[in-house]
Amino acid sequence: MKSSHSHTPRRLAARQLGLSMIELLVALAIGSILIAGAVFVYMQSRNSYAVNDSVSRLQETARFAMSVIEPDVRMGGNWGLLNDPELVTGRAAQTAGAVLPGNANKCGTNFAVDLFTTIEGTNAGYTFGVARQPACNPNGAGAQANTDTLIVRRATGNPVAATAGRVQVWSTRTSGGLFTNGAAPAAAVPPGGQVNDVIVNAYYISRDSDGRPGVPSLRRKSLVAGPDFQDQEIVSGVEDLQVQFGIDPTGSAGIATRYVNPGAALPVGTQIVAVRLWIMTRADATEVGYRDTTNYQYANRNFTPNDAFRRVLFTRTIQLRNRIRI
Fold first, then answer.
1. What is the pLDDT of residues 30-39, one digit of tens each?
2. Under a CB-based contact definition with an 8 Å cutoff, are residues 216 and 206 in contact?
3. Domain coordinates in residue numbering, the chain
């Protein structure tokens, strides 16, 4: 006699095949939540990486700009074996008659040989060249509004051979002179004397980079062979340069008692002993979902961009090796 339960396991197995509609919907809901969470984490990680990468690039740009300007400024007022420009003959103030011909003056009369002001700048504007000498105008669409300029005059750190067509300085421990004909005096022969190239760099911010209109850049007008001035891009992505000079009003302590903007009226005998720089870098393109509403207050600037560009602001105070008398 067959048991009435002989087909029960088969019937139970048939009922357990597949998933019910409710179970399927629950599984799909849980899977969707997990996938959505994974996608959200991925997007957040990707956005964080993009932001960190952008900030790192801006910081790298600012550091590079500082690494170019800082050693230049620190050596300002060095003239080979001398650090007193009053001992160098052939220098001339920008208010005097030109002592060199042609392009040596295209950024201003005696701009290449004004050893009276070995460190100087302009406040909130590019004023050398322009109407006086269009060949020295800023690159591209012009200088960035409300930015400062910084001019450094000095000699190269290492001696060089006398070369015709270059502005050079010969020096001993007690005297020196400028020349461009490649014929240094006998006093310049080592070990008692030496010859160095004269370096003049005028840093400014342009509205455009090379081949990239609308992307601001740090540039400089540099004294080259000819003598002439050549426009060079240092690095793109720099939006602002602000400068202040640390001064010693007595000219004796060698310590900055206050900082002033370029062009400030100062008493005779004041010495510049330090230069404080602010460099602001800006991303090349706007960032979706980001708005820079930071109120930036530095030097004599106070503004809020209220746009979609990401920015980084760097500052540094550079002590001068040679005091600059005003």
1. 888 888 877 7
2. yes
3. 45-325
